[in-house]
Amino acid sequence: MANRVALYLQDAHDLREGLKYVKYAEEHGFEAVWQAESRLVRDAIVPMAAYAAVTERIKVGSGVINNWTRNIGLLAATFLTLDDLAPGRIICGIGAWWDPLARNVGIERKKPLVAMRETVLVLKRLLAMERVTFHGEFIHVDGIELDVVHGRREPRHVPIMIGATGDLMMELTGEIADGVVLNYCVAPEYNLRALELLDKGARKAGRSLDEIDRPQLIVCSVHEDHDRAIDTTRELLTQYLAQQPHIAKASGVSEDVVHEIQSILGWPATHEQIQRAKHLVPEDLIHRITASGTPEEARAKVKEYIANGCTCPILYPVGGDVQLLIDTFSQPLV
């Protein structure tokens, strides 16, 4: 598509309201919608199925599920089922999760690179309708295959995109995945290092960087009132910098600021705690790592991410008018 742009939905809207936004995005030429699965709030798979059922062309991706909480057989069967519902329109975005959330629900995230490699390789083989025997450190399967008795038995084209943030995971993504879901809350210049690592990984597999799709989550608060857009984003960053340390590290925020915010916020953070801590997030940081402001300001910032290697902005509408955001980005960016 000439104008590659996507919508990102998390848990800020009623699910049925989200269906309206997805249909509106499809009508306005958006390429995809991605459903978040991050905190212990909204599962990605149920909304994905709902979005697929009420649309005809738009792609539907998980942005991102983790590779620890779904058995590999169930994971493959889930994406087979979604592809039955919307053939050729489903994208599997998958990530390594993070602590302390994983630890707090009893999961030990040891050797995340090995675990991700095994997950992606076995998932690809199962979706290719192979009979698989595999014994690794994390995945052990004996002669399993997707047992399709009724329906399409041909291999399924479900792109697997890794939500990578760290250097080693980024390199692995270039080697084994169809693409990367570049993270949000980073400056556009962050992508330059990511491209180097993706290219390094791709060359290991005899591929080029151009074969690696690079959609990117971008926090995008759009409002005709600049100050209102900025304040809405400040509240989101307050929560994310405290609760997702991998994002805080990638965004370049000082550890002192993160620790001070963490000292105020609990888990889950309350609205009152966020209001008490949000003054700690400086406005220059908001401008540096998000696309927030008036429609013109938001478009200009998103263009910076594209200039730095993003192939498809995945816009996370923080507060405000979601339809205004869709309208703002329905016209070509390049």
> What is the CATH topology classification name of the domain at 6-219 and 318-328?
TIM Barrel
Cα gyration radius (Å): 19 Å
Structural class: alpha/beta
For the record, what CATH class of the domain at 6-219 and 318-328 applies?
Alpha Beta
Give the full name of the CATH homologous superfamily of the domain at 6-219 and 318-328: Luciferase-like domain
Strands, helices and their partners?
Elements (H helix, E strand, L loop, with lengths): L5 E4 L5 H13 L4 E4 L9 H9 L5 E4 L2 E2 L5 H14 L4 E6 L5 H4 L7 H16 L4 E4 L4 E5 L15 E4 L3 H10 L2 E2 L9 H15 L10 E8 L3 H18 L1 H7 L3 H10 L6 H7 L5 H7 L1 E3 L1 H13 L4 E6 L4 H7 L6
Parallel strand pairs: 1-2, 1-12, 2-3, 3-5, 4-5, 5-8, 8-9, 10-11, 10-12
Antiparallel strand pairs: 6-7
Your description of this structure?
- It is a single chain.
- The protein has helices at 15-27, 45-53, 72-85, 101-104, 112-127, 167-176, 190-204, 226-243, 245-251, 255-264, 271-277, 283-289, 295-307, 322-328, and strands spanning 6-9, 32-35, 59-62, 65-66, 90-95, 132-135, 140-144, 160-163, 179-180, 215-222, 291-293, 312-317.
- It has 334 residues and is of the alpha/beta class.
- It has a domain at 6-219 and 318-328: Luciferase-like domain (TIM Barrel, Alpha-Beta Barrel), CATH 3.20.20.30.
- Strands 1, 2, 3, 4, 5, 8, 9, 10, 11 and 12 form a ten-stranded parallel sheet that branches.
- Helix 3 (72-85) packs across helix 5 and helix 6 (167-176) crosses helix 7 (190-204).
- The radius of gyration is 19 Å and the shape is globular.
- The chain starts with 5 loop residues before the first strand and ends in a 6-residue tail after the last helix.
- The mean pLDDT is 93.
